Amino acid sequence: MIGYILGLVVILLIFYGVGIYNRLVKLKNLVEEAWSGIDVQLKKRYDLIPNLIETVKGYASHEKETFENVTKARSMAQSANSVDAQQQAENQLSKALVNLFAVAERYPDLKANTNFLHLQEELSGIEQDIEKSRRYYNGTVRDKNTLVESFPSNLFANMFGFSKSSYFELDNEAERTVPQVKF
User: Fold this and answer.
1) SS in 3 state form for 130-179?
2) Of 1, 57, 59, 85, which cross-links 80 as Cys (Cβ 3.0–4.6 Å)?
3) Residue 81 in 3-state DSSP?
4) Quick count: other Cβ atoms within 10 Å of Cβ 162?
5) pTM score
6) Contact 169/67 with Cβ under 8 angstroms?
7) d(CA 151, CA 159)
């Protein structure tokens, strides 16, 4: 009788372990899928940037340093090979794009140009898609990290080599500053 009970407990533990393992695999795959979604949006953004630069160049050809900085930041972002490296590269690219739009502000004809307005609108849409993809990615990372760190699933995670994933966060200094309202 004790043998049957012990056998049943062992079988239940095996099924429990298999269930945890399968959840860990599922979350690992969701994190990879979510990162792929971010990657797709970033690729769209990288493809749009040269068109934006060429449009602004037509109006502000003497702003060579700004164009070079945006191009350099874009190249660095495209070649990043980890979440942390991508995060740093995207922060640099965002700063470079802010400078590019500051140049555009100095040229009223450019701000009224339909190509520039269309590219600016498209970039804004892509930025929103990146934000959505980033939220989904960070949510799946949160779920995976919770399972990897929680007891008793952490025992299985360590046994099978599952580890925590990094969050993807972009710094946008403009969003962190308090807006000033002037009348």
Assistant:
1) HHHHHHHHHHHHHHHHHHHHCCCHHHHHHHHCCCCCCCCCCCCHHHHCCC
2) 85
3) coil
4) 20
5) 0.73
6) no
7) 13
Classify the phi-psi angles of 50: left when phi > 0, otherwise alpha if psi is within -120 to 50, otherwise beta.
Answer: alpha
165 in Cβ contact with 144 (< 8 Å):
yes
CA distance 105 to 9: 71
- The pLDDT profile of the chain, 183 residues, written as one tens digit per residue, is 888 999 999 999 999 999 999 999 999 999 999 999 999 999 999 998 888 888 887 777 667 788 888 888 988 898 888 888 888 888 888 888 888 888 777 777 766 677 778 888 888 899 899 999 999 999 999 999 999 999 999 999 999 999 999 998 876 554 444 444 343
Q: Tokens 């012990």, residue?
A: 6
Q: What is the 3-state secondary structure (H, E, C) of 12-44?
A: HHHHHHHHHHHHHHHHHHHHHHHHHHHHHHHHH
Of 21, 16, 15, 14, which is closest to residue 147 (Cα–Cα)? 21
**Domains of the chain: which residue ranges?**
30-169
